[in-house]
Write a structure and sequence with these properties.
single chain; about 150 residues; alpha+beta; Alpha-Beta Plaits; 5-stranded antiparallel β-sheet
Amino acid sequence: MPVCINAGQVRLGRFSESGRIYLLTVVVDQRQPFFVDWQLGRLVVRELRQAQEEGWGDFLTWVVMPDHMHCLVQLRDKTLAELMCRIKSRSSLAVNQALGRRGRMWQKGYHDRAVRREDDVKALARYVVANPIRAGLVTRVHDYPLWDACWL
């Protein structure tokens, strides 16, 4: 596992709480649309699922867009920084290997929002999975290959 510099440091105002649900967004470096190729997007999906299987967090819903990713995750025993470092580093390695390239794939950092009330969860989940529709990529979410929700 790669060592993430500053992974233990929390951004001012950021708080990682085991059991809390967070909406996370991470963007591809320079907004390169790597995941127009859905097979590359599946490499990111594989890392999300692997992180869940290893007990890092429970991914309630996620969508991998051409140049960014959103996920709604309930933390387990790791911090936000540790979880994001793991997902970003391992998915970068997989995508870079598939493309025969080197270098950064994701922008530095990520955006997070702690979910405060239980009723926010489903509204945020709808927001996440509707991203491909709002972006004009599909007219029905079921036509988009890179999303999932635990309620289905």
